[in-house]
Description:
The structure holds 2 protein chains of 2 kinds.
Chain A: H1 25-34, H2 38-67, H3 77-111, H4 120-143, H5 174-202, H6 215-246, H7 260-294, H8 301-314, H9 330-342, H10 344-358, H11 367-390, H12 392-398, H13 402-432, H14 438-464, H15 481-511, H16 549-554
Chain B: H1 2-22, E1 36-37, H2 48-81, H3 100-129, E2 138-145, E3 148-153, E4 158-161, E5 163-167, E6 179-185, E7 190-194, E8 198-203, E9 209-213, E10 219-225, E11 237-243, H4 245-256, H5 265-276, H6 279-282, E12 306-307, E13 312-313, H7 316-324, H8 326-329, H9 342-352
Parallel strand pairs in B: 1-10, 2-6, 5-11
Antiparallel strand pairs in B: 2-3, 3-4, 6-9, 7-8, 7-10, 10-11, 12-13
Helix pairs in contact in B: 2-3, 5-9, 7-9
Amino acid sequence: MFDTIIDPNFKAPEPERVGEERVSLTRIVQELVFTVDHKKLGLMYIGSGLMFFVVAGLMATMMRLQLAFPNGKVLEPDVFNRLFTMHGTSMVFLVGMPIIFGFANYLTPLMIGTRDMAFPRLNAFGFWVFFFSGWLLYFSYLAAPGLYAAGSAPDVGWFAYSPLTAKAFSRGHSTDYWTLSLLMGGIGSVATAINIIVTTLCLRCKGMTLGRMPLFVWVFLVAAFLVIIAIPPLSACQIMLIFDRYLGAKFFDTQAGGSAVLWQHFFWIFGHPEVYILILPGFAIANEIVPVFSRKPMFGYPIMVAATVMIGFISLTVWAHHMFTVGMTSLGNTFFVVSTMIIAVPTGIKIFNWLGTMYGGKIRFDLPMLFCIGFLFQFLIAGLTGVMLSVAPFDWQLSDSYFVVAHFHYVLIGGLLYMVFSGIYYWYPKAFGRMLNAKLGHWHFWLFTIGFHLTFGPQHIAGFMGMPRRVFTYEEGRGWDLWNLLSTIGVLIQIPGILFFVINLIYSYIKGKKAGDDPWDAWTLEWSTTSPPPEYNFAKLPEVKSRRPLWDLKHPEDPDWKFE
Amino acid sequence: MRLRGTLLSLGFRVCGALCALTAPAFAEPAGLEYPMRRVAHIFQPLSRPAEMISEAAYLVSLICLGVFLVVAGLLVFIMIKFRRRAQDDGREPPQIYGSTNIELAWTVIPILITVVLVLVTSRTIGEIQNMKMPEDALKIRVVGHQWWWEIHYEDLGIVTANEVHIPVSSRDPAQATPTHIVLQSADVIHSFWVPQLAGKTDLVPNKTNDTWLDPYETGVYFGNCAEYCGTQHANMLLRVIVHTPEGFAKWVASQKVPPAAPQTAEEIKGHQLFYGYACINCHTVDGTVAEGVFGPNLTKLMTRQTIGAGVAELNDQTLWAWVNDPQGLKTGCLMPDMQLLDPEVDAIVAFLKTLQ
C-alpha cells in the first residue's frame, strides 16, 4: 500500500466545453466571418445569392409595372435603364454564379468523400471577394454621381456595349463601379473554380476513379474549367475599358479609330461560355435527382460525361451568335450558325438520357422531382427557341427583341433556377436536418410555374411582333399591349410563389419534420453521413466500388460494381 | 414549291388573324394616303428579304414544334406510365445502365436534323447577304444618332430625318426595284429594324453596314432602334413610307422645293429668333446660314409625320410643346430646354410651320 493523499472534498472540474458556448448573434457572425468550412461557405454563397435574387427580382417587378401599359409613367427613363442593367448584372454575377458555387462548395467534398475543399482559405477568400463585389456594385447607387451629378447606378446594359461606356456617353462613375465590381467578382470566381478542380482531381476517396464520380461532380468539373477559361477575357476587356476611360487608351474609342465590335468579341467570348457555366450546374443537379426519384441509375453515364465535355468544348466556339446583326461576313455568320447548332446535339443527348432514366422506373413526384420535371419541360422549350435563334436570318428578326428576353429567361429561370429550387428541396434536409414543408412547397411550385409561363410565354409573341428589348416605354397600337399586360400579371403571381418559398425556408428550419440521414433513399456519399454533416464530414473516410456506393450497401445481393 | 407557297400564305393569314384578334384597332386619322402598318409581325413579311427570312423561319419553327411535341409527349407519357402507383410493392424497378444502340439513335437523328437546318440557314444567309444590288438601285445612307435617324439621299440631294421614303417594288423578281440602305452611326451602336421589311442590321460607329429593302406593297411601316443606345432608346422610332412610283417622284420633287420665305410679322419674328438663338448651331435649313449638323435637318420639317423621332405625331400642339421644352416630351434628349418665353415659342413655331 502506498500512502495516497486524497482530498475528500476534491471534485473533478467541469470539462471545458469548447464550441458549445452560448449562441449569440455576435458569436454567429464571428463564426461565419472566420469559417473556412466548405459547408458553411456553401450555405453563405447560396444565402447571399438568394438575397441578391430577391433584390434583383424586385427590380424586375418595378420594370414590369412600368411596362404593364403603353406610355407607362411609373419610372423615369434613366431609372428604368439602371434597373435593367442592375437586374441583369445582379442575376448573372450575384445570383447565378454564387448559387452554383454554393452547391459546388457544399456538395463536392461530401460527394467525393473528403473532409473539405483542397484550399479552404482560398475558398473563404473567394466568397468574401464575391460578396464585396456585390456590395461595390450596389454602392454605385450612393457614390457614382460624384462631382458630375450625372448618373448613379450603371445604365449601360449588362453587356455594356462600347462606345456607350466611353466617357463621352457615360459620365460620372457608374460604369467604373460596374467595371470594378465585375473585375473583383471575376477574381473570386477563378479562385473558387481552381479550388473545385483541384479538389475533384486530388481529393477523391479511395476507389472513386473518375469513371465512378457522381455526374454532379463531373459536370461541375467541366463548368469550373469553363470559368477559368471564360473569366480572363472578361477581366481583360474590363481593364481595357478602364484604360480607355482614364488613361487615354483607344481600344473602344470609335472617334479615334477604335473598334466597337472588339468589345463585343471580348465580352461574348466570356459571355457564351458563361451561359453554359450557369446552365451546366442545372444539369448537374438534374443528374442526381432524376435517377433517385425514378429509382434507376443514370441511363448512359459515359455518354452523359462525354456530352458534358463536348458542351464544354463547343461552347468556346459559338460566341459570335450574339453578334449576327453587327455586319459580319456571310462566311463568318455561317461558321457560328454551324457551331451553335452542333451544340444542340450533346444537349439533346442529355435530355434523352434523362427520359431514358425515367423510362421503366417508379417515379416519385416529391418536390425535387416536381421542379425537375418543370425544368425538363421548360429547358426543352428554351433549347428549341435557342435553335430558332441560331438560324442567323431568323436571328436578324429576333435578336434584341423580346423573343430573346423570353428565350434566356426560359434558360435561366426555367432551366437553372428550377434546378436550384429542386436542389434546395433535395439537399435542405441534409444541410439542416429537417424536411422542407411539402404543402408550402406545392404552393411555391404551382404559383411560381403559372406565373413564370404567364410572364415569359407572351414575350415570345411580343418579340415576333417587333417589340425591342430594353425599352422603358412603347407606343400604343403596335399590338404589344396585351402581351405586356399578361407578362406583368405573371410577375404578380410569381411573387407570392417566392414568398411561400422564403417562408418555407424559415418555417421548416424551426418546425420542419426531422429528416434523418437519408430521407430520399439515395445513393451518393453525402447521404451516408449525418444530417447536418459534422464539421469533418465523415467519421471514417469512405471507400467506394461503384458509382452508387449506397446502393451497394443497401443491396448487397445486387451491387452495381458487378455491372459497371 | 406549291406546298411551300400554300404554307407561307396560310401562316401569313393565321398571323394576320392573330394580330387582328389581339391588337385592338388603332384610331388612325382620316384621309391617309397609304395604310398605316402599325401592327407588324415577322411572319407577315411584305418585302423580299423579310420573306426569305420568314421562309426559313417557318421551316425551323415547324421542325422545332415537331421536336417539342415528340419530346414533351414522351415526357408526359413516361410520367403517367411510370409513376409510382398507390399499390406499389416497394421493390426497386429493374436497374438499366444504358444501351449503345439507343444512344446512337438519339445522337444520329439530331445530327441529321442539324444538317438540314445548317443547309437551309446557309442558303438563306447567302441569298440575303450576298444579294447583288442593281446598278441603278436607289441608295440611302442612314446615320444613327442618340436618339434619332439622319437620312441622306445623296444621289437626289435630299436630307431628312426619322422617316425613310422609298418606292414600292414588285413581287416579280424581274421587275423588282430594291432599295440599298447604307448604315452608319455618329455616336453609339444603334440597329435598324422594320420587321415587315427586313431583318435588323446594326449601325456601328467607325464601320459601314448594308441592308436592303424590297417592299411589295405601299404603306407606312413601323420600326424601332433595336440596340440599346442610351436614355431614350425606347423613343428612337422609325417609319418607312413606301410610295407608289408616282408618289415617290412627287415626294422627291416636293423635297427639292425650298420653303417659302416667312411672310407674316409673327413668322418674321420667329425667323429672327431662330437665327438669333442657338438653334442654328445644331440644325440646318438649306440655303441659309443655319448649317448645324448635330440635330435633324429642318428644311422640310412640316412634311414629316412625327416629331422627336416618333415620340409624338407632328401637329401644332406637339410642335409648340417640343419647342417650349423638348425635355418634357422626351426626357434626356440632347436638345436642351431653351427657356423661351411663350410669345417667343409662338413666333418660332409660326416660323417652323413655313418650313414645308
